[in-house]
Amino acid sequence: MKNLHRIAFLAWLVVIIALTLLKSFYQIGYLWDPDNQRVREIILEPLDVWRSSSNWFLSVFEYGGNTALFIPFGALLFIVLSMGSSRGGSNRVRGGPRTGWASVWKVAVLAALCSFSIEIAQYAFSIGRSSTDDLLSNTLGGFLGALLAKAAGPKLYPFWSGVSLALAAVFAVLVGLGERLGDPEKIVD
Fold first, then answer.
1. Residue 31: inside a domain, yes or no?
2. Rounded to an integer, what distance in angstroms lies between the CA atom of residue 28 and that of residue 174?
3. Domain, as residue range, for 154
4. Is residue 150 a contact partner of residue 107, using CB atoms and an 8 Å limit?
5. What are the transmembrane regions (predicted)?
6. Helices 157-177, 56-83: inter-axial angle, 10-degree rounding
7. 142: which residues sit within 8 A by CB, 6+ positions away?
8. Do the domain assignments include residue 64?
9. Looking at residue 93, what is its pLDDT?
């Protein structure tokens, strides 16, 4: 079962990398224009999209999407950490899985570090807008994912892994379909 959780976590990492660092190389329908992803910009003002957007949907999509993207990351990382190490001895505390609050906060910190690394890479390689909003939303998503996994308990660990693998597979199919999804005539600027 440990391997299922690790595979699910790695599959979700691939989804995160594809959606944050590789969007200039593919598209899903007409959700974004790959050419618009080749930018180098830093947005340090928190809640900038919320304040500057004339379209409420863009704000919801931006914050909700970034938070949702990291919920599986947080849940799966919490699960993998709670399963302990596969090397020799057990990393379980007093016979049980490591599923305390310290693990939830550890996941939140690791989500923040992962998100920060993504933002740095986006800036360094001119492949996206580096934003404090992304960092905050991603960290919140990782925290919420860990919190959900902790609250649901070990019996639902296979559920989280299964759903994440299914979503990663759907994502792969959508990437494969690319421009065939949607009608370019109905795009409104």
1. no
2. 6
3. 2-25+37-86+95-178
4. no
5. 7-26, 63-83, 104-125, 157-177
6. 130
7. 70, 71, 73, 74, 77, 107, 108, 110, 111, 112, 114, 115
8. yes
9. 41
> How many domains, the chain?
1
Instruction: Please state the separation of Cα 95 from the chain's center in Å.
Output: 31
Burial-class residue 29 by CB neighbours within 10 Å (0-12, 13-18, 19+): middle
Helices (H) and strands (E) in the chain, counts: 6, 2
Q: From CA 178, how far away is CA 18, in angstroms rounded?
A: 13
Q: What are phi and psi of 111, to 5 degrees?
A: -65, -40
Decide if 185 is inside a domain.
no
Tokens of 6: 């690790």
Of 4, 162, 141, the residue nearest 83 (C-alpha): 4
Cβ neighbours of residue 189 closer than 8 Å, sequence gap 6 or more: none
Instruction: Report angle CA 18, 146, 169 to the nearest 5 degrees.
Output: 35
Exposed / middle / buried, residue 84 (Cβ in 10 Å: 0-12, 13-18, 19+) = middle
pLDDT for 23-46, tens place per residue? 888 888 887 788 888 888 888 888
Q: How far apart (Å, rounded) are the C-alpha atoms in residues 139 and 143? A: 6
Question: Can you tell me the distance from the alpha carbon of 142 to that of 156, in angstroms, rounded to the nearest whole number?
Answer: 17
pTM: 0.85
How far separated are the first and last CA of the chain, in Å rounded? 47
